[in-house]
Amino acid sequence: MKKRWARGEKAFAKINGKSIAAVVLDAADSSRGDYQQCKIRIAEENHLGGGMLTSVYPKPVQSYRLKSRATIIAELGEKEELL
Fold this sequence. Notes:
The chain is mainly beta.
């Protein structure tokens, strides 16, 4: 298994061929232990009214479909960390 995901980590999730901003809510090893099943909250641009729409994705996403993300998205409850 490559990267282990933890609660609160920022990611891009590859869903239906699109890269969607997400934050990991929970991660558990698969039955074979070769990847994780991740529960995520996603944020997508609202094309009708502007801004962002957020929701919890209805199915677990496999960890190999996630890629680390550094950008901050306030709608996902993220805040800039001060050093």
